[in-house]
Specification:
The chain is an alpha/beta fold. It has a single domain, classed as Vaccinia Virus protein VP39 (Rossmann fold), CATH 3.40.50. It has six helices and nine strands. Strands 5-4-3-6-7-8-9 form a seven-stranded mixed sheet. Strands 1-2 form a two-stranded antiparallel ribbon. The chain is globular and about 55 Å long. The relative contact order is 0.13.
């Protein structure tokens, strides 16, 4: 993972209580930095044990600000700050129909499920079968049996359950895949890392009656999107 120093794998030694304290400290840090504002996102991050969505030998590193490797081709779980970084600009909230492109470990899916609540919907699409199975097992073990998981090309979205109020693409692409903007509801928002001259910029897109509006958020570093619209 260029740009990041991944800590070495080790047999986990931290207790559940130690990791809970690290989780609370991380959420407080994200809030103090101004990155985390939504109370629903805050409560989701406090509730979900991120360490349960990480391969065992990296469990003790769950709250470090580094991506960690997952089963699959170039698969990672993003840094802890990445989730409010994406979900806050989206305005992810109760009742939203949310599409996640790139399932990863399933952690972001669980966070989103807590945020949208029982009246919302979370659909997550993952192209890599190994990554998909790892995330699926994590989510099932954590009790998230009402999210829709699809092992397919995320750039194509998931038409049967469109339209989506919010869409998150967790891999860098050269441009937004057209199927995803088509599946975005009027007034909906989409967020994605976009490649531009060798750099990546997180872009927020909103679908208005006049067309699509875009807003730059910050420079980021993510693995590349795979599939038909892969970078």
């Amino acid at each position: 993972m260029a740009g990041w120093i991944t800590p070495p794998p080790n047999e986990p030694i931290k207790t559940r209580e130690e990791l809970e304290r690290e989780r609370a400290a991380k959420v407080e840090e994200l809030a103090s930095s101004g990155l985390l504002k939504s109370e629903r996102i805050r409560q989701a991050l406090l509730k979900i044990a991120r360490e349960d969505f990480i391969p065992r030998l990296y469990r003790d590193h769950a709250y470090l600000e580094v991506p960690l490797p997952l089963p699959g081709q170039q698969a990672t779980i993003s840094c802890p700050h990445s989730y409010p970084l994406f979900y806050e600009p989206l305005g992810l909230d109760a009742g939203h129909r949310f599409l996640e492109v790139g399932l990863g470990s399933g952690y972001g899916t669980a966070v989103a499920r807590e945020v949208v609540g029982d009246e919302g919907l979370v659909v997550a699409v993952e192209i890599d079968p190994l990554t998909f199975e790892f995330a699926k097992a994590n989510l099932e073990r954590a009790g998230y049996d009402d999210v829709v998981l699809v092992n397919a090309d995320g750039g194509l979205g998931h038409p049967p359950l469109q339209p989506y109020d919010r869409i998150s693409i967790t891999a860098a692409c050269r441009s937004i895949p057209p199927p995803l903007t088509e599946q975005l509801a009027p007034g909906g928002k989409l967020i994605a890392p976009i490649l531009d001259d060798g750099r990546q910029f997180l872009i927020l897109v909103e679908k208005t009656v006049q067309g699509m509006t875009t807003k730059d958020i910050c420079e980021v570093l993510y693995v590349s999107l795979r599939g038909k619209y892969g970078a």
